[in-house]
Structure formats: C-alpha cells, structure tokens
Amino acid sequence: MRTFIACMSLILVMASIGCSRELRPGGDAPQRPFNFSHIPEGGEQAPITDGTQQSGVAPDVPDGETNPDGTPIEAVDPALEALISEGRNAMTGGDWEKAIEIYLEVVARDENNMIGLYNLGYSYRRSGNYDKAVEYSARAAQADPDKLYVHQNLGYAYLGIGDTESAMAEFEDELDRHPDVADLAGVAYQLAKLKLDNGLGEEAFDAAMHAVRLAPDEPDYEALLGEVHMANGAYDQALTSFRRASELGPDDGLYRKLAGDALWELGRKDEARNSYMDAINLDASLRDQIPAERLADDSETEESADSPM
After folding, report:
1. pLDDT in tens, 15-48
2. Which residues contact 212 (CB under 8 A, 6 or more apart)?
3. 3-class DSSP state for residue 221?
C-alpha cells in the first residue's frame, strides 16, 4: 500500500513539473520594435517612424497575450496608427505645420506616445519654433532616454535657442549611450566644433576623434581634427590630418591651405608656400585668407629692402 501511495505521489509531482514548463498563451510572442527610417539632414539624422509600428504594442493581439517579460501587450489603436502615418507623410513632404497639428493630436490621445513626442520636437525645430522643440524633445528624452536619436534631437533644439552648454551635454549623452552608431558621426563633429569654439581643446580632441572613427572617409571630419591639433599646438599631428583630408577631398583647396598653416607653424616656410599656392590654384578666393607675407619669397623681400633709392 505504501509503495502504491509513493508511486502515485511521484506521478503527481512529475505532472506538475511538466505543467510548469508550458508557456503561457503568447508568452513567446515578440514585442514589436520601435522602428525608425532616416532622413539625412547635413550631419544629423531625423528618425521618423514608418507609420505602421508603435512602441510596445503588436497588431491584432488576442486577449490575454503577453510580452516575453509577462506584461500584457496592449492592442493597437487603428486611429492612432493612421495619424502617425499621416504625420510621417507630412514630415517627408516638409510640411512641418501640418505635421505639428497631427502629432499634437497623437499626444492628446496618448501623452506618452514616443513617436508623437519625438516628431513634435523635430517638426517644431524644423519650423523654427525652438522653445516648443525643446519642450517636446525633452519630454521624448525623458520618456525613453536610451532611444537612439532623442538626445541628438534635443541637442539641436537647444542650439536653436542659443543654449550651447545644454546642447553639448545632450550630444555627449547621445554619444555615450550609442558610441558605435555610424549615423552619429555628425553629432560628434558638431560637438567637437562647439568644444573647440569654447576653448575646450582636450574635450574637442576626444569628440573629433570620435567623429573620425565613425566616419573615417569624411574629409571635413579629418580637417576638424587637424584644427583641434592646431589649437592644442600639436602641429605635426595637425599636418598629418590636413594631408589626410586633402587625400580624401583632393579638389578642396581649403585642406591644402590648412596644411600650409601647419607647415608655417613648423617653420617649413617653402613647403608652406607651395601648399598655399596649391590651395589658391584650386580656389582663388583662398588667397584672401592667407597673409601676404606668407606668399612672398624671403629672398625677394630682402632684395627689396636692400635696393638703392
């Protein structure tokens, strides 16, 4: 009898273990991603949703389904999705006022909607209303601080109101959270320029190096690194960067002019003049940016000074 009871107990235990291993309905259903497409905008990327996806939700979800972490999956609001798609079309067409109107309605329906908050901040910035751009871009960054591009967007909004310090902080935050995203090379470049303009040479160097690492074939980024070296008195390194920029952009005379500046600081005046003349041959307007004495031959200057009356 005892043996029979023990066997029955073992069967019940094994059955309960087997049940515990079963997935709850929908427990392995993937959460829909917050997908962005990109619109290049001269050094910054403007993420805009494709109009069919929304953070943390999935389409046509049966009642009771859950995310992998066990939290309920909320059903999609078709009207909200339609608004988001309409807003995306307005942004793609550059109709910022219409986009603002649409995304204000999105946020009115769902005050924490990440798509609505981000795209409101972006659209306000593109329309020139930087105060509102800061307001909604900051709300987006607070809603999801790790989301790619949100700190970039807020940084450019701060630049719009002239708050350079806050802009630099947001650009740094973006790069710290996403250090290897190639699309952020323009943010690193912008940050380096701001640091350089504010006399922060060492920090400007770090940002410029970041830009070059993310976009090693961009001549402007290499040239900016050279300018940072010049500001820090590292003329040999500056010359290397300017020559590298000239290789990447052989038709741009500015890089050769900058190489001439580095050569002049190194005391290599003949080489500097040659570099200056190469620059002028590519772009005659650069002559006005080069001091006249740097273009004059030393022997000609001495002969002129010693000539009799």
Report:
1. 333 333 222 223 333 222 333 333 333 334 444 4
2. 218, 221, 222, 225
3. helix
